[in-house]
Structures are given as structure tokens and as C-alpha cells.
Write a structure and sequence with these properties.
about 350 residues, six-stranded parallel sheet, 14 helices
Amino acid sequence: MRVAIACGGTGGHFYPGYALARELKRRGHEALFLIRDNDPAKPLLEAQDLPSVEIHLRGLSRRPSLSWFTILPKTLCAVRMIGRVFRSYRPNVFVGMGAYVTGASAAAARLGRIPIVLHESNSVLGLANQVVSRFSNSLALGLPLTEPVKIGVLTGTPIREALYQRGDSSQARRDLGLKPGLRTILILGGSQGASALNLQTPAALEALGEPVQAYHLCGKGHLETTKEAYSKINKTVFSVVAEYDADMVRAYAAADAVICRAGASTAAELLAQRLPAVLIPYPYAAADHQTHNARALENAGLGQLLEEENLTPDTLARALMTLPKDLTESPEIKIGLPPAAESVRRLADIVEQTAKAVR
């Protein structure tokens, strides 16, 4: 079976498709990636011997701009190009992981009478998936949707295999220069950082009134201001601050709790790691999807939702105090999701079944 997978643009859309391709390859199938031109994921695909085609296309601006006048002709050109790729590659099924490349690729698949499987990682359908779901054959869901759909099946969002289980906490803390026996809070603001989290978290940790340490990933360009914020609090808080850490397996292993945004990939990783979290959604996310993701994790008993407009050191400290200390019950089960290791297998099953059903 040959499968075309549209993903990329952001890590949240790429890594689930990458995990799916690896599972399909293990089952003896072929996968071709459709990614944007100059996608940062291309070197990884090349290293794993996974073929790809670059599509010249960019997303639609949410605010009025001159790009609105060029998006239609660019999309039509992309659909024609992808149509040529499909006629050459002859996929048995197309899989769209969301984002703008999915829209154009699904249109070409529809014109070529190729069955379509969609995956939505968030609790709200993205714009491309909203449109394409009207004529898709299958829809896999990473989280329960706020507005249920007829064909949606909960599969969870595939993540890297290394994150299925927690790593060695003591070793991770030693490697990071943290203290072995101290309660550790991991702070994640995303690769670009989150100024609100960087500036408010140090004082919030101080307000806990107990010895605690932070492993704070502040994002590119925020290192000095974040370190300065920690320098202004008392010494009950020990901190290690870095812009970025490529080894998230180690970062999660070191943590007892997390303060973070509520993107879909982060949500899936927290569920797999069973890490309690204070979730502070990015307030400008499309369709406010991060707030809906955070509510899903809150319903699972995993986290506390704290909106950025209400974020202060005191509110953040109170949210940290209410987090569960021990997640004895699997949080994913509470919202109907399979364990992390099952997510990619369920999605691969749907892809195989869809391809067979339309033959």
C-alpha cells in the first residue's frame, strides 16, 4: 500500500504524521510526505529515508492582508502540482494531519478519487480540517472535540516512542544540574518563548513558600530577562534556565509538574508522561483551540486551566498547589483515549481500513 501524508508547517502537525509513517513502514507500506517548501522537517525525513515532495504554499493570514488576494491562485497551482504527484505516485490513500498543506492535498486527492483520512490533534477542528472533513472518508481525533462530528474516532495523537514511558528522574536531574531530591517544576513556553510565563513564574514559585526548583525553557531570545526574574526572588527557589532543550525525554523525566501552553503535541506528551500541569493557553491561538485543549486535560484530572489574562504570581502559585501529587488513574482513560503506545497503531489501522474499503 502507498500512502501520501500531508504534514509539517509546525512540529505539532509534523510529528504525528512522522510517527504514522514509521508505523506504516513497519507494516510493509510506503509513505510519501507532502510538506511546505523549506520545511525544517526535511533533513529528518532524509535521514530516515522517507521521501518527500515540497509544496510552495503558505497559510492564510487570520487578519486582513494582501496575501488574501494571492492565496486562491497559489492554492490552485498547488492543487495542480499535487495532482501530478498523485498521478505519478498513485497512492492508495491520502492522510492529512491538518494545516494548510492538508487543504490543497485533500482537494487533489478528491479530484483523483483517492480516499481521504484526516487527523485532528486539537479539541477544535482546524480550518483546513473543517473544510475537508465534509468529504473525507475517515476522521481520527487526538482529543474529544468540543462539537462532536459523525465520523470522528478517538485515536489520540501519535508521539515519539521514547515518550511512552517516564525516564529516570534522578539521572535526568543530575544531567541537567538540578538537585536530586527537590520538587521540580518544568516550565515550557514553546520554541519562541512566552513572556508572561517567563516573568510571572519565578515569583509564583517563591510564593509556594517551600523549597522547589525550576527547569525553565524560556525560548530563544528570552534567556537574560528570565534569569533576571529569578535573581530577584529569594533562595528557596533553585533554577536552571535554558532557551531550548532538544531532549524532552530528559526534561519530562526530571519534572514533578509542568507549567506550559496547551498545544496539541504538548497535551499528548503530558498525557503519556502522566505529568500534572498548570495549562496557560496561548490567547491568540486560532479558534482559541488551546483553551479547549486545556479543558480536555482538566477534565482528565491532569491539569489546571489558568487563562493568561488572570495570570499573576499568586494565581499561578494557587494553581500549582491544587495539582494532584500522584496520578494513580490513567488520565487518558477518563476522556476516552487509548494509551500513548496505542495511538499510532489505531491511526494506522484506520488508514489501512479506509484504503481497503474504497478499493
